[in-house]
Design brief:
The complex is a heterodimer of chains A (about 350) and B (about 180).
Chain A (H helix, E strand, L loop, with lengths): L4 E4 H11 L4 E4 L6 H10 L7 E4 L3 H13 L4 E5 L1 H17 L3 E9 L5 E4 L4 H6 L9 E3 L4 H18 L2 E7 H5 L1 E4 L34 H14 L6 E4 L6 E4 L2 H15 L5 E6 L1 E3 L3 H5 L8 E6 L6 H11 L6 E5 L8 H12 L1
Parallel strand pairs in A: 2-3, 2-4, 4-5, 5-8, 7-8, 11-12, 11-14, 14-15
Antiparallel strand pairs in A: 1-9, 5-6, 7-13, 10-12
Helix pairs in contact in A: 1-2, 1-6, 3-4, 9-12
Chain B lengths: L2 E8 L4 H14 L3 E8 L7 E9 L11 E6 L2 H7 L3 E10 L14 E5 L1 H8 L5 H13 L4 H11 L4 H23 L1
Parallel strand pairs in B: 1-4, 4-5, 5-6
Antiparallel strand pairs in B: 1-3, 2-3
Chain lengths: ~350, ~180
């Protein structure tokens, strides 16, 4: 194994994206995403055939990504809260046209201008519908710097294969976290999947704009069927679940804080485990369907969003599998995040 | 087994760099580690702190509330983070600016040494963070002092004149820690 190197989350994500073949980036700086823009501004001109552009706004940036991807380049943008709101129209347009892109949201606190501190408050915004109209993104929710780098690396292939937007949902804590990681090697740019549909490649082939014709409704049904087919691509971390009587549900950085608390309780013999979705959409419903109602006494949800957003998906997965297990939920938000100590204290109340 | 340190000071005192040099050192030693930072919008003069954790297994929470060590560069960090040291843990404080009679707990250890004064004597107050790093590595044993010194030489090698000052600052920090451990 190669020696691991120390990387900040935002920078590891950026470098990994370039290694995955990202040829075009347009974005606008915003805390806590800024290091991505900063890193790529410096790094991309060092590599042959890569283009970095700082758009005059997020609105311009997403449309530049649209254009670059439509002519065949692997393209990415990154932003935070308000920036993503400005990109909503472009994201919707991309998903309607079937133009792939990778979009990173480094979540900050609260609605409106909010604060620059970490939160998980964009969960519903990103997972609900990609802008207006109801189409969806494939969404990764990593919780370590290594996962962040690995997921963005895979994101470009998924985006190309399904002609969709792939979103990487991290938060300020993970963006600024530094850990030792092993980055994957540079992809050979000539071996990337051929985009037969792209404007530059085959003038006689199918074009980017699939829709708005007489078959538009059928197109939407096909897209919906594609989303259904993704269920087998769902990724999950089932942590200490084998004999768990108390099941924590959490994602992202909040979930890694839960791990510390769960280990502390396990050391005292309490049978606590955790289901941590690594993909937000597709959501790993099978982990919830597999829960044994006779064994699991309580589900305990933790998230850094008020009111809860992730919990809605947890409840839906349980309802779909007809599992009747009591749920209790704890939240922080608006820039305050759970610490392991707080989670441990809450878990102790539940298991006592 | 996790070990953790929280470093705090004013923006501009080099707290972030000090923590980064520490985590670079962990990577050299193939240790598992995290660096988590919080800093205000204003760069210079704002508050700045970072938490470095090392472990022999996957690290969960990077924003650990209770830590084994606090390294206080200034008075606000000393006051704010004193309560976050685990019983039996250690407060390492910059006595050039923090008075020993500010200590309020009897279940933790206090180590005071004149870090800012040492940095000034070395010839550049900006070496404060490297003085602190040398002291912390030697005193805590959390990482190898030798490995940390090599990282300082590697990461701060761009300006040869400053590098010599930083190496000297590191060595004096280490010597101070040896003295502190002896008494």
């Amino acid at each position: 194994m190669a020696k691991k190197e120390v990387w900040q989350g935002n920078e590891a994500l950026s470098e990994s994206a370039l290694r995955a073949g990202c040829r075009f980036f347009a974005g606008y700086p915003i805390t806590p995403q800024t290091e991505i823009t900063e890193y790529l501004a410096k790094r991309m001109p060092q590599l042959e055939g890569r283009v970095f552009l700082q758009g005059e706004s997020e609105l311009a940036s997403i449309n530049m990504v649209y254009g670059a991807s439509a002519i065949g380049a692997r393209a990415m943008t990154a932003t935070s809260g308000q920036g993503l709101a400005l990109m909503a129209e472009g994201l919707s347009q991309l998903s309607d046209a079937g133009v792939p892109a990778v979009v990173v949201d480094v979540m900050r606190a609260g609605p409106g201008n909010g604060g620059t501190e970490s939160s998980q408050g964009d969960y519903s915004f990103v997972s609900g519908s990609l802008g207006h109209g109801g189409f969806k993104a494939f969404i990764f929710g990593p919780s370590t710097v290594q996962e962040t780098a690995d997921m963005v690396y895979d994101a470009f292939d998924i985006a190309d294969k399904y002609r969709v937007v792939v979103a990487i949902l991290i938060d300020g804590m993970l963006g600024h976290l530094i850990e030792a990681v092993e980055l994957k090697p540079f992809r050979d740019m000539d071996s990337l999947p051929f985009r037969q549909w792209a404007e530059k490649n085959d003038p006689t082939g199918p074009k980017v704009h699939w829709c708005m014709g007489p078959n538009w409704e059928q197109h939407a049904r096909d897209v919906a069927a594609m989303y259904e087919s993704w269920s087998e691509l769902a990724q999950v971390d089932e942590f200490m679940m084998d004999d768990a009587e108390y099941v924590v549900t959490a994602w992202g950085t909040c979930a890694r804080c839960c791990k510390t608390a769960i280990r502390a309780l396990r050391a005292e013999g309490y049978k606590v485990g955790m289901i941590r979705p690594k993909t937000i959409f597709p959501f790993p419903k099978q982990s919830f369907a597999a829960l044994d109602e006779g064994k699991v006494k309580q589900i305990i949800n933790f998230e850094n969003a008020i009111p809860e957003q992730f919990l809605v998906d947890v409840k839906a997965a349980l309802a779909e599998a007809r599992k009747d297990i009591p749920i209790v939920s704890y939240t922080h938000g608006m820039g305050t995040c759970f610490t392991a100590d707080e989670i441990e204290a809450k878990l102790r109340e539940v298991v006592k | 087994m996790e070990k953790s340190v929280l470093m705090g000071g004013f923006g501009g005192q080099g707290v972030q760099t000090c923590g980064k040099l520490l985590i670079y050192t962990t990577a050299e030693q193939d240790m598992i580690a995290t660096f988590y930072s919080q800093y205000g919008g204003a760069m210079r003069g704002g508050t700045s702190n970072c938490t470095v954790i090392t472990s022999d297994e996957e690290i969960g929470a990077p924003n650990k509330k209770n830590v084994d060590y606090v390294v206080a560069f200034n008075i606000p960090s000393f006051k704010k983070f004193e309560e976050r040291i685990v019983p039996g843990g250690t407060m390492i404080a910059n006595s050039t600016v923090i008075s020993e009679d500010m200590a309020t707990r009897d279940d933790i250890n206090y180590v005071f040494f004149p870090a800012t004064q040492i940095a000034e004597d070395v010839g550049n107050v900006k070496t404060l963070n490297v003085v602190m790093l040398g002291f912390f590595c030697e005193y805590s044993g959390m990482v190898s002092t030798e490995a940390a010194k090599a990282v300082v030489a590697d990461k701060m090698g761009k300006k040869p004149a400053l590098l010599e000052l930083n190496k000297k600052a590191f060595d004096i920090g280490v010597a101070e820690a040896k003295k502190a451990k002896a008494c």
